[in-house]
Amino acid sequence: MIHSFKPIKGDVAWRSPSNIAIVKYWGKYGNQLPQNPNISFTLSKAYSETSVAFQPKAIENAEPNIDFLFEGKENPKFRDKIVKFIDSIKSILPFLNEFDLSIQSSNSFPHSAGIASSASSMSALALCLIDIERQASDNFTDEEFYRKASIIARLGSGSACRSVYSYMATWGYSASIPSSSNEYAIDFSAHIHPVFKTYKDAILIVSSDEKSVSSRAGHALMNNNLFAEARYQQAKQNMEALLPILKTGDINEFGAIAEQEALSLHALMMCSNPSFILMHANSLKIIDLIKQFRQEKDVPLYFTLDAGPNVHLLYPKSEEEKVELFIRETLSAFCENGKVIYDEVGTGPVKLK
Ligand code: PMV
Questions:
Q1: Residues 229 and 156 in one domain
Q2: 163 plus 214 within the same structural domain
Q3: Is the pTM of this model over 0.85?
Q4: Do 218 and 269 have their domain in common?
Q5: pLDDT tens, position by position, 17-46
Q6: Residue that terminates a domain, selected from 132, 163, 192
Q7: Are 32 and 159 in a shared domain?
Q8: Ligand 1 center to residue 24 CA distance, Å?
Q9: DSSP SS3 for 15
Q10: Largest CB tally within 10 Å, which of 68, 87, 270, 290?
Q11: pLDDT at position 281, please?
Q12: How far apart are the CA of 331 and the centre of ligand 1, in A?
C-alpha cells in the first residue's frame, strides 16, 4: 500500500478532541497494548489543534530537524517528548527519516486546567503524520487512514487511539465486538442509542495541579498489584454488560457501570505499592452530593473520574437545565476557583488544513 515517498513539501493541520473513558484502560503490556477492552465518549470542546509543516531535510545525512512550538512558544519538555515519540515510530513511518518537521500545537483548554491533554494532542499529531503519509500513497481508504492514525496515536498515549472517532470508540480485543483489536480503536457510534450522541460531560475542576502520578507510572503499578487479574476480569464483564445498555439507552444502568469503573480505578491506585490517593476531599464531597441529588430529585446524574481529582458529571441533554443549576448553586463551591468545563459528546477530529 505504501510506495516510495515522493519528495514533496507542505503542511497539514488537525483538530482532535479529548475523550473520557466509561470502561477504563488501566494496565498495559508489550508495546502499549491494553490489558482489557475499554470504551470512551469522544468529547467536543476540549481539543488540541496541531499543524505539521514538512520539507525534505536540509542536510542529507543528518538526523531530520524537528521544531516545536506549544501555544506559540518554545517548550523544551514537550519537544523532547515529541522527538522521542517520532523516533519511536520511524520504523512504521519511514518518511520521518527524510523530512524536517515544524510542529505547532495548542489546546482549547488551559494547559494547567487539570484535564489530560495527551489524548487530544497525540491523536492530533498522529492524524497529521498519517495525513502526510497519505499524500504520498495511492489507495489509502478513509478506513485505513483512521485505523493507522489510531495505531500511531496509541503508541503516543494509549487512550489517544480512541479520540480519532466520533461519539464513542472502543479499544482492545473483545470476543463480542467484531474487528476489535488491541492495536487500534474502532468506531462504535453505529451501535449506540441516540441519547448517547448528545450526552453531556461537565468537568468539575477540583484541582489543576499536575497529577501526583503519571499515567505511565500508574499503568506500571498494575504489574505488581495483587488485584490486577480480578480487575481485568471486572473490566471485561463491564464491557459485556455495557454493550446492550448502549444499544437500548438505559442511562441508569450506564451510569452505574461508569461509577463502578471510576471507583475501581481509584481503589487500584490506593492499594498499589507505593499507594496513591488521587481524589481530594472535595472530590469525595462532590460524589456524595451527586448521589444525594440523584436520589432526592430523581435525575439520572452519574460521575466518572480519570486518574486524578477532577469529577466528570455525565447526564443526558434532556436534564441539562436541572444539572447545570445544581452545579452552579451547589457543586461549583467545591471546585478550584469555581471552575467547570461544560463539555459534551462530539463528532470527532476535523481536518483544518
Ligand atoms: O492513555 P494513558 O496512558 O494516559 O492512560 C489513560 C488512563 C485513563 O485515562 C485513566 C483511563 C482511560 O481509559 O482513558
A1: no
A2: no
A3: yes
A4: yes
A5: 999 999 999 999 999 999 999 999 999 999
A6: 192
A7: yes
A8: 7
A9: strand
A10: 290
A11: 98
A12: 25
Query: Per-residue pLDDT averaged across 107-126, rounded?
Result: 87
Domain count, the chain: 2
Q: Where does ligand 1 bind, in terms of residues with CB under 6 Å?
A: 21, 24-26, 38, 118, 157-159, 215, 265, 306-307
Residue recorded with cell 452552579: 328
Residues 6+ apart with CB under 8 A from 294: 300, 301, 302
In the block, residue with C-alpha cell 479499544: 171
> Does some domain include residue 114?
yes
DSSP conformational letter for 273: S
184 within some domain: yes
* CB 103, CB 68: distance < 8 Å: yes
Instruction: Pick the atom of ligand 1 nearest to 119's CA.
Output: 1
Of ligand 1's listed atoms, the one at least distance from the Cα of 160 is: 1
H or E stretch at 73 = strand 73-74
Q: Are residues 199 and 180 in the same domain?
A: no
Q: Which domain holds residue 30?
A: 10-192
Residue 174, CA atoms < 13 Å, CB-side half-sphere: 24
State the Cα angle at 330 between 328 and 334, rounded to 5°. Answer: 95
pLDDT at 127: 98
Closest CA to 246 of 162, 169, 317: 169
